[in-house]
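All the exercises in this workshop are built on plain-text protein records. Sequence and backbone structure share a record, each on its own labelled line. The structure tokens are whole numbers drawn from a learned vocabulary of backbone shapes. The record below serves as our worked example for the rest of this section.
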Amino acid sequence: MKWSEIAVHTTNEAVEAVSNILHEAGASGVVIEDSREPDVEREDRFGELYDLNRDDYPAEGVIVKAYLPATSFLMETVGELEKEITNLADYGLDTGKNTVTLTEVDEEDWATSWKAYYHPVKVSPRFTIVPTWEDYERLGTDELIIELDPGMAFGTGTHPTTVLCLQALEKTVEEGDEVVDIGTGSGVLSIGAALLGAGRVAALDLDEVAVTAARDNISLNGLSDKIDVRHGNLLDSYEGPARVAVANILAEVIITFTDDAYRALEPGGIFITSGIISQKKDLVKEALLDSGFEIMEVMMMEDWTAIIAKKPEGGRNAALLS
């Protein structure tokens, strides 16, 4: 069978949105090649090994690659993709060069080549993300292993926004907590919360593909009894209350439901937001404060931001007086 590699040359700011468009078009995974990756100075906190070849990355911007079957309808699909990506500018996203190229590949080549990009990655003092086909030996009794099949949907779980959320969950989730994961995608954050001891996790997503992918990954990690995956828009299908809510979504979406997140949390509850390009962190902070949250911590990785906010014990008035 023949496949077509679709490569979108865009910006770091638009990566999440472009990836989502490709998934909705039928791609079961994406590869992200960021021009800045070889130059990132990394603190060796968790024993990672880095060996990046600059020739594997674009000279500027970001290339997002996905694979679709080479059918007679492909060009029509590509045309729709180009329109949707161009329309991202209406939401204030800079799409950069915004070029789309096609390359035909054999199924055997595609099935093996994309796996070369994905290996076990230690993303925090406790979490390591491991692809299902890799043999990995636990480094210590305190290490938490998240197994993922990134071919299912929504990436490898190692994007900075996801890593920031996992690190924030590690700081905030306590034994027996109820956690709600808004826009669960692959389910990686729900899995992380459950491994940290959450008593019950609600994993919500509007995309049916994500719901299926999350359930598969959750089952793979043996956590189906602790995580309830639901189809629904943002918090519409959730009653709460939760002690911790996490949302790894675009800043423009986060600011539309901060009031709903406030209502869904118990007093003293924690709201973790990520998917925020650094230039828009103040926009999200303002929305959180307006809804009554207190900002506890702002975390940054590369050009991305995560914010840990708290619902005051005494409610909105306590936040206004603090």
